[in-house]
Amino acid sequence: MFNGSRKYSLLPSSPSSSRASSSSSLPAAPRRSPRALQRHSSLLSQYSGLLESYTEGEIRQLISALVERYSQAMNSGGHELPLFPRGGSRRKRARARHKPCALKELEVSVSELGLGYESDETVLFRYCSGTCEAAVRSYDLSLKSMRSRRRIKKEKVRARPCCRPLAYDDDVSFLDAYNRYYTVNELSAKECGCV
Question: Residue 29: its pLDDT value, please?
């Protein structure tokens, strides 16, 4: 079945020499050049064969994903394209993203509250922070599906529960810079939950 006099080479041969040396009726298979020759070619030529195997739609998706990643890096103050994030940073972001809803506190001046009062008095501002992954219900999953299918288009709806105050602390009273007395209600959270 095999011709003992046939010689095989790693380098591609010309079509005329392959026809002359081939005595069988099998078509000649395309031959790849050895890897050692490819090391010296440019990066573009190395990946051109890979890119040729993708459809136009897949290449468009790849380019749009890279452009989106680049614009996110530029908007966040980065100066480099983060194609390969540093090791461990993804894990840290994932942990930070999935902290459960909890009550936190911060000591701030009344002026920093942004309510229009000028005062140097400080208050303990309690707020709710965290995610509500465990509180996702069938409603949230269905709403998310309807939004992704564009069945709900222009309405502003949230497809997941939010970490919000369930109850508020007592009213807060203070003197402003002009010695006027004020009382503000529902300023600080007392209890947090997923709503």
Answer: 61
Of 49, 175, 185, 156, nearest to 111 by C-alpha is 175
Confidence check: pLDDT of 47 > 80: no
Which pLDDT tens digit goes with each residue over 17-30?
444 444 455 566 66
Taken in order of first residue, the domains within the chain and their CATH numbers are 102-134+162-194 (2.10.90.10)
Q: What pTM did the predictor assign?
A: 0.47
β 181-184/172-175 pair status: antiparallel
Q: Does residue 94 sit in helix, strand or coil?
A: helix
Backbone angles phi, psi at 104, to 5 degrees: -125, 165
